[in-house]
Design brief:
Alpha-Beta Plaits, 3 helices, 4 strands, Stress-response A/B barrel domain-containing protein, Dimeric_a/b-barrel
Amino acid sequence: MAPITRFAAFKYKPGTIDVQKRQVLDIIVKLYEENARMINYGPFGGKNNNPGGHDKGFDIGFTVEFKSKECRDEFNADEKHAQYIMAIRDILEDVFIYDFERGDYGY
Protein backbone atom coordinates (compact mmCIF):
# COMPACT_ATOMS: atom_id res chain seq x y z
CA MET A 1 0.00 0.00 0.00
CA ALA A 2 1.69 3.16 -1.23
CA PRO A 3 1.19 6.44 0.61
CA ILE A 4 -1.00 9.13 -0.94
CA THR A 5 0.07 12.75 -0.76
CA ARG A 6 -2.66 15.37 -0.79
CA PHE A 7 -2.10 18.95 -1.79
CA ALA A 8 -5.01 21.27 -0.98
CA ALA A 9 -5.41 25.00 -1.56
CA PHE A 10 -8.18 27.38 -0.53
CA LYS A 11 -9.24 30.64 -2.12
CA TYR A 12 -11.49 32.63 0.18
CA LYS A 13 -14.36 34.78 -1.02
CA PRO A 14 -13.85 38.53 -0.81
CA GLY A 15 -14.90 39.80 2.61
CA THR A 16 -13.81 36.69 4.48
CA ILE A 17 -12.19 37.94 7.66
CA ASP A 18 -8.99 36.58 9.18
CA VAL A 19 -10.85 35.05 12.14
CA GLN A 20 -12.93 32.92 9.73
CA LYS A 21 -9.81 31.87 7.81
CA ARG A 22 -8.09 30.83 11.04
CA GLN A 23 -11.15 28.85 12.19
CA VAL A 24 -11.24 26.94 8.89
CA LEU A 25 -7.60 25.98 9.29
CA ASP A 26 -7.93 25.08 12.97
CA ILE A 27 -10.85 22.77 12.23
CA ILE A 28 -9.09 20.88 9.41
CA VAL A 29 -5.90 20.51 11.46
CA LYS A 30 -7.95 19.09 14.34
CA LEU A 31 -9.73 16.70 11.97
CA TYR A 32 -6.40 15.37 10.71
CA GLU A 33 -5.14 15.07 14.30
CA GLU A 34 -8.24 13.07 15.27
CA ASN A 35 -7.47 10.71 12.37
CA ALA A 36 -3.72 10.47 13.00
CA ARG A 37 -3.81 6.70 12.60
CA MET A 38 -4.44 7.29 8.86
CA ILE A 39 -1.70 9.90 8.42
CA ASN A 40 2.07 9.61 7.94
CA TYR A 41 2.66 13.35 8.23
CA GLY A 42 0.91 16.68 8.06
CA PRO A 43 -0.87 18.78 7.55
CA PHE A 44 1.89 21.26 6.78
CA GLY A 45 1.28 24.44 4.88
CA GLY A 46 1.13 28.17 4.74
CA LYS A 47 0.60 31.21 2.60
CA ASN A 48 2.21 31.38 -0.83
CA ASN A 49 5.47 33.30 -0.98
CA ASN A 50 6.58 32.35 -4.50
CA PRO A 51 7.34 35.57 -6.41
CA GLY A 52 6.40 34.04 -9.78
CA GLY A 53 2.76 35.09 -9.62
CA HIS A 54 1.34 31.65 -10.43
CA ASP A 55 -0.75 31.24 -7.27
CA LYS A 56 -4.04 31.66 -9.17
CA GLY A 57 -5.33 33.73 -6.25
CA PHE A 58 -5.28 30.89 -3.72
CA ASP A 59 -4.80 32.12 -0.17
CA ILE A 60 -3.44 29.06 1.62
CA GLY A 61 -2.10 25.62 0.74
CA PHE A 62 -1.16 22.53 2.67
CA THR A 63 -0.02 18.94 2.23
CA VAL A 64 -0.75 15.79 4.15
CA GLU A 65 0.38 12.23 3.50
CA PHE A 66 -2.10 9.41 4.04
CA LYS A 67 -0.74 5.96 4.77
CA SER A 68 -2.64 4.49 1.80
CA LYS A 69 -5.47 5.05 -0.67
CA GLU A 70 -7.70 3.15 1.73
CA CYS A 71 -6.85 5.57 4.55
CA ARG A 72 -7.48 8.54 2.25
CA ASP A 73 -10.83 7.10 1.22
CA GLU A 74 -11.78 6.41 4.84
CA PHE A 75 -10.86 9.99 5.79
CA ASN A 76 -12.87 11.41 2.88
CA ALA A 77 -15.92 9.37 3.91
CA ASP A 78 -15.72 10.44 7.56
CA GLU A 79 -18.89 12.26 8.67
CA LYS A 80 -16.85 15.03 10.33
CA HIS A 81 -15.05 15.64 7.03
CA ALA A 82 -18.40 15.91 5.23
CA GLN A 83 -19.62 18.37 7.88
CA TYR A 84 -16.42 20.38 7.48
CA ILE A 85 -16.92 20.66 3.73
CA MET A 86 -20.47 21.88 4.21
CA ALA A 87 -19.40 24.39 6.88
CA ILE A 88 -16.72 26.09 4.76
CA ARG A 89 -18.59 26.32 1.46
CA ASP A 90 -19.98 29.77 2.24
CA ILE A 91 -16.57 31.40 2.60
CA LEU A 92 -14.63 29.60 -0.14
CA GLU A 93 -14.51 30.88 -3.68
CA ASP A 94 -12.46 27.93 -4.89
CA VAL A 95 -10.75 24.78 -3.62
CA PHE A 96 -8.02 22.75 -5.25
CA ILE A 97 -7.44 19.19 -4.05
CA TYR A 98 -4.79 17.03 -5.72
CA ASP A 99 -3.99 13.54 -4.44
CA PHE A 100 -1.09 11.57 -5.86
CA GLU A 101 1.08 8.54 -5.32
CA ARG A 102 4.73 9.51 -5.37
CA GLY A 103 6.41 8.54 -8.63
CA ASP A 104 3.16 7.68 -10.45
CA TYR A 105 3.42 9.91 -13.50
CA GLY A 106 0.85 7.94 -15.44
CA TYR A 107 3.22 6.52 -18.03
